[in-house]
Amino acid sequence: MNSQQNMSTNSSIDDCNTPSHLTYEILSWVMVVQFMLGLPLNLSVLYIFIFRFKFWKNKAIFLFNIVVADFLLVACLPAKAYHYRHHQRHSPNDVVCKTMLFMLFLNRGASIAFLITLSIDRYFNVVHLGRRNFVKILKKSPQISIFIWLLLLPLTIPTMVKTFECCNSHGRKVETYYHDVTDTFREIVFFIQIVIPFIVLVYCTVRIVNRLRKKTVGEKTKLRRAVCVVLSVVVVFSICFLPCAVARAVLLSVRLKEWQAAEDIVVQVYDSLMVLSYMDCLLDPLVYCFCNSGFKDAYITSFCPAVLRERLLKYDYGLGTTTTTSNTNTTTSGNKTIILPIVEK
């Protein structure tokens, strides 16, 4: 029995060492770049939401929660890069490892939950226009956001196991009924958090696009903007969440069949796609711009150079055309044109 346990422990350690030093050194540099871009970007977005856009007055509470989720991710990137540089797939320190896993998967769950909520809101506003939109009611209550975070905790806690990140499930340790059930539950939670929201997202997108095609006159502008919102969420899902779920399913299959040579390759693909999934902290601001033109205008007037400011403010990202924005006042003094933002609507 002791020999079996030692073999299990050694297998766990081996599974969590990097199979290729070069691959993980490259991935560590990718995460360093993500951190260097993500930290100032998300700090600037946070500044706009709090001090310029005043999210609590502009019904953007869900967007603000996505920013908070992205900060959880950005905070983990330096430590994750450090471990990859030292040829470890996770921290050997149990507390650090569990904290990292908790924050990473809480970010993933929160980002998916609030992005899907935005898509459902657009779906009801377009497809079921005139009916009572429960999402619109929820947006006015900050308590709902707190409830969503609390609801995510039971789904995130099962992933706080060191062997989960290394996909060390089913047959990789001394199997008991308890281990088998908990491993299965963790995998089910991981896939449900991605697959079901993606199905909902595809459904909302198809219905909104069909509505746009049937609309010949009237509110085509509103419909196009709704399409841009859901398509931007589809892009985030397609790049950040779906590929790593597919790779994990392949990795589980390879490990159950004990194809060691194939496993060494699939592990690197899976970890590479997980690093790619951290791009959501860089892509989410695009969703903010498509979702709320007020945020876009406030951000441009605060951080964009004066040369580009007027041109960007006039460009409607939902339409691909130039329009006159209602969020700025233009004051002319001599040969200078000064654009003053109006944040509150």
Automatic annotation (TrEMBL):
One of its GO terms (molecular function) is G protein-coupled receptor activity. Residues 41-288 form the G-protein coupled receptors family 1 profile domain. GO terms for cellular component: membrane. It comes from the Eukaryota. Keywords: G-protein coupled receptor, Membrane, Receptor, Transducer, Transmembrane, Transmembrane helix. The chain crosses the membrane at residues 26-50, 62-81, 101-124, 144-161, 188-206, 227-251. SUPFAM superfamilies: Family A G protein-coupled receptor-like. It is found in: Membrane. InterPro entries: GPCR_Rhodpsn, GPCR_Rhodpsn_7TM, HCARs. Its main location: membrane. It is a multi-pass membrane protein. Belongs to the G-protein coupled receptor 1 family. PANTHER family: 12-(S)-HYDROXY-5,8,10,14-EICOSATETRAENOIC ACID RECEPTOR, HYDROXYCARBOXYLIC ACID RECEPTOR 2. This is 12-(S)-hydroxy-5,8,10,14-eicosatetraenoic acid receptor-like. It comes from Sparus aurata (Gilthead sea bream). The lineage of its organism: Eukaryota, Metazoa, Chordata, Craniata, Vertebrata.
